[in-house]
Amino acid sequence: MPEPAAVPDSRIAVECRGIVKQFGEGPRALRALDNVSVAIRENEFFTLLGPSGCGKTTLLRMIAGFEYPSEGSIRLHGEDIAGLPPFKRPINTVFQSYALFPHLTVWENVAFGLQMLGRPKGEIASRVAEMLKLVHMEELAQRRTDEISGGQGQRVALARALAPAPKVLLLDEPLSALDYKLRKEMQIELKRMQSETGITFIFVTHDQEEALTMSDRIAVMSKGKVLQIGTPWDIYDKPAERFVADFIGETNFLPAAMVGIEAGLARVRLPSGVEMSATLADGYVPSSEATLVVRPEHARVVASGGQLSGLVENVVYFGTDTHIHVRLDEGFTFMVRQQNSRSQSCGAEVGARVGIEIAPDAAQVLRD
Amino acid sequence: MARARFDFRTRARFDVRAQPGFGTIALFTFALLYLPIVTLVVYAFNASDSLSSWGGFSLHWFAAAAQNQSVQDAAWRSLIIAASAATMATIAATMAALATTRTPPYPGLSFKYAFINLPLMVPEIVTAVALLIVFAKVKVWTGYSGLGYLILAHTAFCIPFAYLPIRARLEGMDQSLERAAADLYATPWQVFRRVTLPLLRPGIIAGFMLAFVISLDDVVISEFVKSGGQDTLPTYMLGQLRRAVTPEINAIAAAFLVLSVALVTVFFFINRKKA
């Protein structure tokens, strides 16, 4: 998918172009990455999002230097680094397992990178102190790494990776080992650190919610390919492919007939015969049939009227909202998410005949 | 938690200790293993010259052994050989373990494992004869007939014993630690010095200890390789047994036993503290 041309090259921190990673040879060869291109801007919180095995970690390891691409180039501020070993790249990593050195104290862990760079002792001491303060770990500086909790280990790993002031920080699912509440806290912390340090963060996760809440931009990956790159809003509201729409949030897919395209908007005919307008995914290939995506919260259940109609099959109460599953007259199931209020029920009874009203501009035509 | 549940279920189904005859077999096994050693140690304190009839308690034979110049020489020689061989074997084993665990698997790797562990499989007597023949030639060519041959021979058969614990430690080590060090600007040598080696230390100590003890009590290869006047403690004892046997041999054996047990214990505690 093409990048907006508005960003000048000098503002690109990391650019991967045409990356292929192949394991093995011949018919049993496995393509972990298949022609992947991403351009990550300076000072950006960029997320690689996808299910396990989609190649996101392989791409991250390539940027770190633990893997080398079979084809393609990796540039850091314009300089090709694809052939450099990890210790020659001004890029640091926060590992999924944290990988804290068990024979060193918290302080020594954070100082490690600076010591390897041969920085003067005074500078190391003040920088380590600054980093420990950033992650609120000053009191535990002399602890051994097996004497601190998982959340604290996470902070130390972060301080250790930030201490040498890398140009880019790589984070490999760093929050996956934390419990829900701590994870929420760390999401906000990470965001704060990124804006305080001004370092480019490249974050790998399979958690779509994490990606949506933290990222400036997201690259959605599947089976070694990048399917879509965009802001969280783009990815959620304007998914380009079925996989993206399905992987991120809940969604309704509807088959529709293409009536025409006018001024960048599509005119489609729903299974019920009603016509409505819909936005078009980037890279849309014209065809007479279309797959339409409608997010459940962009539709509502009405007693009569609406573009679709059917019987209420199931009503699930979620506290903040209610999910209403409607079996459409054409046989598909459509899910509506309605905000709850204290005074009113959602108004749908199982078995009742209802209409579904889709908000204007809420429908998007997928590119495939 | 999962482990506790697992234990509970296996115990409920099958407990070897509840089987009939378990106690008897265990006692019999322990007796078989330790009665001869206990007898040997007891007779080291025998006042008479006989190995079979008790003549009262005495430390006489320990004093005799300690004052015996041949015993002193042999013991000293044994320690020099064991220390040198164990050191060289540990260095070689560490390098071999790094090479076999820190490279991606490739065809022929399992062949290399087998090759490194070959001394464990080749009958000792075969190695002994082979070394005897080779070293005899080398002695003729070089004119050198010092302890070097024994040290080399011991190094060779000690390598697999040092290799096994070191490799086990390396395989159990989280490789992301070394990756993290490299990521933090450590060159490969610095990664080894600052991360791999400190974490590997317990494995290296265990490997050294094993090699040291194995070298210390070797008889077969030493017997074949040694030149005249190069008796180690075990070969000296073997030589004594062929002649007049007195409780002095028991005293030497008992002292040897204490030394071995002490060494293993000391290494065990060092290891436990570091790990």
TrEMBL record, chain B:
<feature type="domain" description="ABC transmembrane type-1">
    <location>
        <begin position="75"/>
        <end position="270"/>
    </location>
</feature>
<keyword id="KW-0813">Transport</keyword>
<keyword id="KW-0472">Membrane</keyword>
<dbReference type="InterPro" id="IPR000515">
    <property type="entry name" value="MetI-like"/>
</dbReference>
<dbReference type="Pfam" id="PF00528">
    <property type="entry name" value="BPD_transp_1"/>
</dbReference>
<feature type="transmembrane region" description="Helical">
    <location>
        <begin position="249"/>
        <end position="270"/>
    </location>
</feature>
<feature type="transmembrane region" description="Helical">
    <location>
        <begin position="21"/>
        <end position="45"/>
    </location>
</feature>
<feature type="transmembrane region" description="Helical">
    <location>
        <begin position="79"/>
        <end position="101"/>
    </location>
</feature>
<feature type="transmembrane region" description="Helical">
    <location>
        <begin position="113"/>
        <end position="135"/>
    </location>
</feature>
<keyword id="KW-1003">Cell membrane</keyword>
<keyword id="KW-0997">Cell inner membrane</keyword>
<dbReference type="InterPro" id="IPR035906">
    <property type="entry name" value="MetI-like_sf"/>
</dbReference>
<feature type="transmembrane region" description="Helical">
    <location>
        <begin position="147"/>
        <end position="166"/>
    </location>
</feature>
<feature type="transmembrane region" description="Helical">
    <location>
        <begin position="199"/>
        <end position="216"/>
    </location>
</feature>
<dbReference type="InterPro" id="IPR051789">
    <property type="entry name" value="Bact_Polyamine_Transport"/>
</dbReference>
<comment type="function">
    <text>Required for the activity of the bacterial periplasmic transport system of putrescine and spermidine.</text>
</comment>
<protein>
    <recommendedName>
        <fullName>Spermidine/putrescine transport system permease protein PotC</fullName>
    </recommendedName>
</protein>
<comment type="similarity">
    <text>Belongs to the binding-protein-dependent transport system permease family. CysTW subfamily.</text>
</comment>
<keyword id="KW-0812">Transmembrane</keyword>
<keyword id="KW-1133">Transmembrane helix</keyword>
